[in-house]
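Archive entry: two folds, one per protein. Generate the first.
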Amino acid sequence: MDGSQLRQHLDRLAQDGYTILERVIEADLIDALAEDLVAVERRDAVVPADNGFEGRATVRIYNLLAKGPLYQRIPVHPEVLPVVEGVLDPGCLVSSLSSISICPGESAQPIHADDQLIPLGKPHVATVCNTMWALTDFTEENGATRLVPGSHLADRSPDYGGEYDTVAAEMPKGSVLVWNGSLWHGGGANRSSQRRVGIAMNYCAGFIRQQENQQLGIPPDLVRTFPPRLQELVGYGIYNGLIGHIDKKSPAELLGTGAVQPLVWEYT
C-alpha cells in the first residue's frame, strides 16, 4: 500500500469510522487459516457460547496466538498494520485475536461499540482499532458485519439491543474491514446455507496498560502468595467483566487461586 492509498483509508476512517481493504491478504494465507481453524475447532471441541452477544450459532476461538505459528502473521501484516497505526500510533498493542464463524440460522448480534466498557466521555481520541479478516466472502445474506457509519463521532455509545439503521460491510474473501473502536456495529444474521468465517484482529492504544509490566515482572509463583485484592491490582483480574480476560477466563483462575468471575457476555 502506497502513501496515497493509506491516506485515503485513514480519511475514510476519520469520516465514516471504517474502511475496507479489498483483497489485500494472500490467498494461500487465507486458505491456510481457514483450514487450521477447522482443525483447532475439532481438536479443542469448540462449540457456540449460547448467549445473546457471542451468539447461539456462532463458533468463536479465542487466544489464537497460542494456537500455532500461523497466527503470528496476522497482527503484523504489512497491508493492514499501517492503517491501524494511523488510527492509533506505532506504539499500539495486540488486544485480542480470535475467530468468528457465524453459522446458518444465527441472528444478528446487538449493535455495540468495542470501547463501550471504557468510561471515557465521547467522542474521544481512539483507544481501540479493530479489524475483521474475511476468510469467506462477506455478504448481507451470510452475516456481514453491520455498521452505523459516522457513529464513532457520537457523544455516547449505543443502547444495548437498540434498533439502528445499519449498512452491511460486504467484501470479498481476502479483504479486511478496519474500524474505529467507537463505531457502532455488530455481526449480521446468517440467512445463507454456509458459514461466514472471519478473524477478529483487535488492537488497543499503547497507553492502555500499566507503567511497569506487572504480569511479566512478578513471577506467577510469587503472585499466588498475594492476597486476592493485590492479585487484582497487579493485573490478575478482569475489568467490567471483560477487559483483561485470557481465553474467557480471569487470569486469577489460571493462577489456581482466584474465584470464577463471569464475563459480561454471560449476562446476555
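Generate the second and append.
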Amino acid sequence: MAAPLAIRLHAADNVVVARMDILPGTEVEPGAKATQTIPAGHKMLTRAVKLGEPIRKYNQIIGFATSDLAVGTHVHTHNCAMGDFERDYAFCADARPTDYVANPATFQGYRRADGRAATRNYIGIVTTVNCSAATSRMIAAKLGPVLDAYPNIDGVVPLTHGGGCGMAASGLEMDVLRRTLAGYTRHPNMAAVVVLGLGCETNQISGLMHAEGLKEGPKLIPMAIQEEGGVAKTVGRAVSFLKELLPEANNVKREPIPASELILALQCGGSDGYSGISANPALGAAVDLLVRNGGSAVLSETPEIYGAEHLLTRRAVNRDVGEKIVERIKWWEDHCARTGGEMNNNPSPGNKAGGLTTILEKSLGAVAKGGTTNLVDVYKYAEPITAKGFVYMDTPGYDPVAATGQVAGGANVLCFTTGRGSVFGCKPTPSIKLATNSALWRRMTDDMDINCGTVVDGEESIQQAGQRIFDLILRVASGEQTKSEAMGIGDDEFEPWKIGATM
C-alpha cells in the first residue's frame, strides 16, 4: 500500500507534514484539502485556528497563528510565530529504571595504558593561540608522509583556532578555552600530543598546564615558537620528537571492549522538516540501545533545546539534575539579553527552507536525538563526561563549537543528523552522518553514512532504523571509516567556544 501524502505525528496535532510536494486541491486527510502548494517537509493545517491560537506538532506547541487560518493552509514563518507560554517542568515525572541488556555488546577498540578506550589513534598538535596555527600545520605536513610506514596511526591533527590572546587572562572564557584544549590533549584517541604556543600570548602554556593538571612527558610535549628560535627550528624539533614516538604509537592492537566505554556525541545540523520525524528519533532509539548496553550519550546545543527543555527535566534522574537544565536555559536567556541576541534567531535560512518554522519546532525535533532513558547528569562546556547513561552538555547551537565541547568532554564517536546536507568531520573522533530523507541520500551518497529517509518513506520503523545506527556505531568504533574520514574531512572543525569580548 502506498504511503500517505502526509505524516501525522499525534492525534492532537493541528498540522501534518508533507512527504512530498502537495498540490492545491489535494485531499490529504478526510475533510482536509490543501488550499495552496505544500512543499515537501512543510506543514499543512488540518483544523482551522484563530489569531493567537497555538499550532501543535508532536502534541506540543511550536508557535502561534498570526492570523485566522483555514484548513489546508501552508503553515510556516509567514503565519506562525513565537510566543510565551508556560512549560511544565514536572521534574523526574518520566524517570524510569533502565532496562539493561543481559549480554552487553562489544566493539574492537584500543585499550590505553590508563585504562580508557579509544576508537582512533591520532597524533595531535594542540595550539594555545592562533599565532601558532600556521606552524602546527607545517609540522603536520612534514610528518604526514612519514606515517606511511606506520599503518596503525590514523594521522596528524593540527588543532587550530582563533583565540588564545586578546582576551582576559582569567575568568570564564579562559577557563573554557583551557578546559577545551586540555580535553583534546587528554583525549583517548590521541596517542601523543604537542602543545604548541607562540610564547607571549595570554594563554600561556604554563598556565594551561597548571590549570588543567597536564604533565609534560614522553607523549605530551609543550613547545613555544619564541623559545625554540622561530618557526623553522620549532618545526624541525617537533618533527624530530614525534618521529621518535611513532613506533610506540603504532604499536597498538584492537581488542574487544564493552560498549559501555563508548561516549556518543549527538549532533544535528542543516536540519529540515523531517529531522524530528526520521533521523533524530531513530538516533534516539540507537541511544536507548547504547544506554541499555551501559554506554553514554551526550546531547548538547542549548539554544536548540529551547522550548523543549521540559521534555528533559521530566526525564531527570533527580531534581538537582533537572534544575541544572533550567539554570542553563536561564543563563542563555540572560546572555542573549545582554548581547542583543534572541533565542529565536534559529532556525537558520536552510532550516526554514526545509520546513522548520520556529526554534520551538526545531527544539522538539532536536531533543528526540536523546532517546527516552533517564537524564543522569548535566555538564558545562568541555567538562569531562564521567557518568554512564544519557547526559547533557551546555553548548552553543553552532555545530563545530558544540561538537568541539563534546569531544573535549571525551566523546569517542559522534552521530550527526542532517536534512539539508552537512558534511561535518570531527577528528580525532569519527563522525557518522545520518540523512533525514531519501532525496538527500541519493543526492549526497558520498557524504552520508545512513539513510533514515526510509522511515519517512514507510519502509522501516524508528526502532529498525535505530538498530541499524547502533550497529554502525559499533562498526565505526571498531575502525570502519565514515564517509567524512574517507575524504579526509575533520582537520578544520575544531572551534572552541568564544564567550567574551576580543580585545
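Annotation attached to the second fold: The first helix runs from residue 133 to 143. The chain has a mean pLDDT of 96.
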